[in-house]
């Protein structure tokens, strides 16, 4: 029987179950912060962890004498000014080598994957793709001390409550004996193992698939991690038999006001608008869906389903979800690549340019929901409203041409 790693102790921990930390704005640590302040924070956190039921022996062994990791502080504050275009991201995330390695691992673990899929409903190729995108099939699981990384991020303070909850969960994992302190390693942001779980997600969703008494996502055998990812995606709302997305073709004269993640319709409606699959065939009925244009009207068009949203629970970035879904399709042989092309000659806006775009849209009366340099649903809606008001093609795409027009 497949068992979860969740225990009564884990159930008493009221924390987030997000796999990865949300994107955060750059903000380097204050120069007035000293190592003494870390020691003071560590002492205070130690007392609170013990008060919440972690044994003093575990807490003191894990945190006693600990110092922050300068590299984690540097990486946390080093937000790149430039955004990687989705086509460049896909070139590496869904490379020929990654597809081939994915297919090899698909065959290697076929029997185990079939059993996991039967229980949780998540296709084998999707689990292999998660593994491939997260750690290149276990090749890059991270070697940063998880406890020190989480303690550093909690002390730094930008998202103290979040990282303190993750550190508390990490201490619980130690107390459960799921991993030795020496093997307790992962990414600089605290994500761990083959499929990069945060500690709270481990407590809630990790699976002892192999039946050896512990859910081991850190070791060389990836099967516990693959089953854990299936459990996570199942709880995130994965629908059996539904695709994550399908590439579509939009007809000449299509009303781009109908595009957008918030504009879901049934297949009958999209067929009435002459929307087809990319090869021109009839659009199948997989339930409610919406049109996503990740690079505007001149790029690939996708019909996205509820399973797209399930994958977003792993990482909310569109480029990540598209890479993961497309890699799964390539591994399973459902696709030979996107039929449409990407606008590779486009200039992708820098962070400062995106901030300026939001500022100018807001000043023109089109609410972006704030100015943060990130193009989310509210900014895309504001762009689309501006485009409609000015007789432009309303694809919601933050292009350099749009910024020049606003300037």
In short:
With 407 residues, the chain is mostly helical. It has helices at residues 8-11, 35-51, 56-63, 70-77, 86-93, 96-108, 110-120, 124-135, 146-156, 160-176, 199-205, 223-235, 267-272, 306-312, 318-332, 351-363, 377-389, 400-406; strands spanning 3-4, 144-145, 185-186, 207-208, 245-249, 276-277, 290-292, 301-304.
Uncertain spans, ≥5 residues at pLDDT below 50? 1-32
* Rounded radius of gyration (Å): 23 Å
Give the strand order of the largest sheet, numbering strands 1, 2, ... along the chain. 6-5-8-7
The CATH architecture of the domain at 3-80 and 141-235 comes to: Orthogonal Bundle
**CATH top-level class of the domain at 3-80 and 141-235:** Mainly Alpha
As for the CATH topology of the domain at 3-80 and 141-235, it is Helicase, Ruva Protein, domain 3
Q: Using DSSP, what is the number of strands?
A: 8
Task: Give the helix proportion (percent range).
Answer: 40-55%
Could you explain the architecture of this structure?
There is one protein chain. The protein is mainly α. The chain is built from 18 helices and eight strands. The chain is globular, with a radius of gyration of 23 Å. The relative contact order is 0.13.
Please name the defining characteristics of this protein.
mainly alpha, 407 residues, two-stranded antiparallel ribbon, 8 strands, Helicase, Ruva Protein, domain 3
How would the blueprint of this fold be written?
Blueprint: E1 3-4, H1 8-11, H2 35-51, H3 56-63, H4 70-77, H5 86-93, H6 96-108, H7 110-120, H8 124-135, E2 144-145, H9 146-156, H10 160-176, E3 185-186, H11 199-205, E4 207-208, H12 223-235, E5 245-249, H13 267-272, E6 276-277, E7 290-292, E8 301-304, H14 306-312, H15 318-332, H16 351-363, H17 377-389, H18 400-406
Antiparallel strand pairs: 1-4, 2-3, 5-6, 5-8, 7-8
Helix pairs in contact: 2-3, 2-9, 4-9, 5-15, 6-8, 6-15, 7-12, 8-12, 8-15, 9-10, 10-11, 11-12
């Amino acid at each position: 029987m497949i068992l979860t790693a969740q225990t009564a102790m884990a159930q008493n921990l009221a924390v987030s179950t997000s796999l990865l930390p949300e994107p955060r704005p750059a903000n380097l640590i204050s120069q007035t912060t000293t190592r003494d302040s870390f020691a003071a924070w560590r002492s205070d956190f130690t007392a609170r962890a013990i008060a919440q039921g972690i044994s003093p022996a575990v807490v003191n062994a894990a945190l006693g004498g600990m110092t922050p990791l300068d590299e984690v502080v540097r990486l946390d504050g080093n937000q790149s000014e430039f955004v990687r275009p989705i086509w460049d991201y896909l070139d590496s995330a869904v490379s020929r080598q990654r597809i081939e390695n994915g297919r090899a691992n698909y065959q290697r673990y076929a029997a185990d994957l079939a059993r996991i899929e039967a229980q949780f409903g998540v296709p084998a190729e999707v689990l292999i793709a998660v593994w491939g995108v997260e750690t290149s099939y276990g090749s890059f699981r991270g070697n940063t001390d998880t406890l020190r990384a989480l303690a550093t991020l909690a002390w730094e303070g930008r998202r103290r409550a979040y990282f303190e909850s993750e550190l508390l969960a990490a201490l619980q994992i130690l107390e459960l004996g799921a991993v030795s302190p020496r093997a307790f390693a992962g990414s600089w942001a605290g994500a761990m193992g083959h499929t990069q779980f945060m500690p709270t997600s481990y407590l809630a969703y990790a699976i002892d698939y192999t039946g050896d008494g512990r859910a081991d996502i850190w070791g060389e055998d990836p099967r516990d991690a693959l089953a854990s990812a299936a459990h996570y995606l199942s709880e995130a709302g994965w629908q059996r038999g539904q695709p994550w997305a399908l590439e579509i073709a939009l007809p000449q004269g299509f009303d781009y006001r109908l595009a957008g993640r918030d504009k879901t319709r049934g297949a009958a409606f999209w067929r009435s608008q002459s929307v087809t699959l990319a090869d021109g065939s009839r659009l199948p009925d997989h339930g409610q869906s919406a049109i996503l244009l990740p690079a505007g009207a001149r790029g690939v068009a996708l019909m996205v389903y509820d399973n797209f949203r399930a994958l977003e629970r792993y990482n909310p970035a569109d480029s990540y979800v598209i890479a993961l879904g497309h890699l799964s399709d390539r591994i399973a042989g459902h696709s030979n690549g996107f039929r449409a092309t990407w606008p590779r000659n486009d200039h992708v806006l820098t962070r400062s340019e995106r901030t300026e775009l939001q500022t100018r849209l807001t000043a023109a009366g089109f609410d972006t929901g704030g100015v943060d340099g990130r193009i989310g649903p509210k900014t895309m809606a504001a762009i689309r409203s501006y485009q409609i008001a000015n007789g432009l093609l309303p694809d919601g795409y933050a292009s350099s041409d749009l910024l020049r027009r606003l300037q």
